[in-house]
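Fill in residues.
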């Protein structure tokens, strides 16, 4: 009966044989543990999956748990590793939520409501999301809405005010702004255009 190390040795030998046959004398890359399937230790595979996922960007615990489940990692191993990664600070939903908001709010101009929906989809607890969203300054949110409307207005000069209003309010609604705030911002920015202030 073959063991996991026999399987690794045979893969390494095969890679060296291919390298020799093609004229390359370099050392083969280490085998992909996930590709080994049942021959690999599930805990080693799960740890590699988690580290690979966390290499490019921060992830929420739920995103990582979903990834492990998709790779058929046993639930007890997944829970144990996720807990350990959380203990050492590699998984931190609070920091993830703050970073997510810091990147999405100014860049995309998203309002609290849209950010809350995104965080919920990422599996962030409502209380953690609420605490992170409370750090958004209402003046910054208003300024972001105004900037979005000003930027979009530049492309709408040929349209009448009714069409512009409808489209701009719709855009702000899709970004998570309340209808009251959206109408106020659009009305003010259209008035500024009429008076030549924008």
């Amino acid at each position: 009966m073959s063991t996991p190390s026999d399987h690794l040795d045979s893969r390494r030998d095969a890679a060296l044989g291919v390298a020799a046959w093609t004229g390359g004398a370099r050392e083969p890359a280490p085998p992909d543990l996930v590709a080994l399937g049942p021959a690999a230790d599930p805990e080693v595979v799960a740890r590699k999956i988690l580290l690979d996922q966390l290499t490019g960007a921060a992830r929420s615990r739920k995103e990582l748990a979903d990834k492990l489940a998709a790779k058929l990692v046993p639930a007890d191993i997944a829970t144990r590793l996720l807990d350990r990664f959380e203990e050492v600070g590699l998984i931190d939903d609070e920091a993830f939520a703050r970073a997510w908001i810091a990147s999405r709010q100014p860049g995309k101009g998203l309002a609290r409501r849209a950010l809350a929906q995104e965080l919920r989809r990422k599996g962030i607890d409502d209380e953690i999301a609420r605490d992170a969203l409370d750090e958004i300054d209402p003046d910054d949110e208003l300024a972001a809405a105004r900037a979005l409307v000003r930027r979009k207005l530049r492309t709408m000069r040929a349209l009448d005010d009714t069409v512009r209003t409808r489209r701009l309010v719709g855009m702000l609604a899709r970004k998570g702004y309340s209808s009251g705030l959206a109408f106020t911002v659009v009305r003010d920015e259209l008035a500024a255009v009429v008076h030549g202030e924008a």
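Residues 4-87 form one domain.
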